[in-house]
UniProtKB/TrEMBL annotation:
Annotated organism of origin: Niveispirillum cyanobacteriorum
Protein name as catalogued: Alpha/beta hydrolase
GO cellular component, one term: membrane
Signal peptide location: none
Residue ranges constituting the AB hydrolase-1 domain according to the UniProt record: 27-265
Amino acid sequence: MVNGAPLYFDVEGAELVPDGGSLRKKPTLLLLHGGPGFDHASFKPAFSGLSADAQVIYLDHRGQGRSGGSDPATWTLAQWADDVKGFCDTLEIEKPYVLGNSFGGFVAMEYLRRHPGHAAGVILSSTSARMQLDLIVKAFTRRGGPAIGQAADDFWSDIKADKVLPYAAQVMPYYTVKAPMDGPGRARSIMRPEVLEHFSGKGGEMWGMDFRDSLPRVTDPVLVLCGDQDPITPWECSEEIIGLLPKATSQLHRFPHCGHGTFRDDPDGTFALIRKFMGVGHTVESGQGVPINAPV
């Protein structure tokens, strides 16, 4: 139970592993899924390979997936961010690495704002500091043509729960370049489209969200990942984020020929960067990510 709600989580990899005559503690990587209204399933099995180097924890946000918390009044960035810290406090997780993908990145940025210094580092994957509909429509048009651009405009201008499945079928295939968004992970997801409508519909918190004021004050190390063909959180969004974060502790890698969630289109390159950021495993350069700022 975290902040009054039961939160579902799954774990891959031990925290303590034998190392000679002692036990060595591995870093914890806490994954915050996208949506809202989906669950952690889209991270599997891709992130399983990191369990040799870190304890990987998959968390379903409040009100989503297998987690409880059915009161829409608690479906807010502040609550979801406080749940991250509350979850870690409950399980006595100290200094986690927190990866937020897409909507999970919104939660991660609110977590950075509300709980500075709590994380060992934060990975902002395919996300944005604010939503810019004109930029999104332009990117979808560039990616899939005018019809897809118009379909994206129609959906994001007036999000309704009953429009989610048609949108997923028509538009979401353009989210990625090489790996399908509607693969096994997405098919296994428990969908809660009412959460998406609440957060992202007309008057929802998403459209007033703006982290431009808080990012310059971030004290935690941050790794920003984006794909150059991502239409829903275009690479320009990550450029804005890295331009606001402190240069000494932040780094952006933009992946060519990749879409939304670079772990889908370039898992090897993405996981090499994550391992390097956490200071574990092999740090072989993939030749994919293009570093934009000073290394962490």
